[in-house]
Design goal:
extended, single chain, mainly alpha
Length: 188
């Protein structure tokens, strides 16, 4: 039996398609995750740009105009500047508390994404108590804010940490009541 080169090329192309099938599966699995993240990021950038433009118009001054066309990239420039700023640590404070506080706040928020379904079959951990675990994990963030304020050994920073924690808690209470009321309505 003689196989010509066109048949060999056709067979090889099927093998390549089979190996690409796994890559396409991974891409289609990541699309539901990155679509809301991209939408939220673009929405925040647009809102920040609008806030700066409207504030500049109200105050009769020139708004952001140098970073990109019409100052659209100003928020990205500010974020980049913030990432590369020097870290200042308090000289008389508790450096461990001061450093661990923001880590606890960010970690609790990132852990709360464990129970959020991104697609029909795309849930990182499917738990029966997902809503309650989400509420519990996200309510740890004010502790990190308090730790940072207390770790600075400065009364004004401590008051700022208390205020930030109080704001966070005051937003969490109505959110928790709304989520729990919907959960109780759904449970039979």
């Amino acid at each position: 039996m003689i196989i010509d080169t066109t048949e060999i090329q056709a067979i090889n192309s099927f093998f390549r398609l089979e190996s690409l099938k796994e890559v396409y599966g991974i891409i289609w699995m990541l699309i539901p995750i990155f679509t809301p993240v991209l939408g939220i990021t673009i929405g925040v950038l647009v809102i920040v740009w609008l806030e700066r433009e409207i504030s500049a118009g109200i105050q009769q001054r020139i708004g952001p105009e140098y970073a990109g066309p019409l100052g659209i990239l100003q928020a990205l420039a500010d974020g980049t500047k913030l990432l590369f700023k020097e870290n200042l640590l308090p000289s008389r404070g508790d450096i461990r508390l001061f450093s661990i506080g923001p880590s606890i706040a960010v970690t609790s928020i990132l852990l709360s994404f464990l129970v959020i379904p991104f697609g029909y079959h795309l849930v990182l951990s499917d738990l029966n108590i997902g809503v309650f675990l989400w509420i519990a994990i996200s309510s740890i963030a004010p502790v990190g804010l308090l730790m940072s304020g207390y770790g600075s050994n400065n009364k004004y920073s401590f008051l700022g940490g208390l205020r930030a924690a109080a704001q966070s808690i005051s937003y969490e209470i109505p959110l928790t009541l709304c989520v729990l009321s919907i959960s109780l309505r759904v449970i039979r």
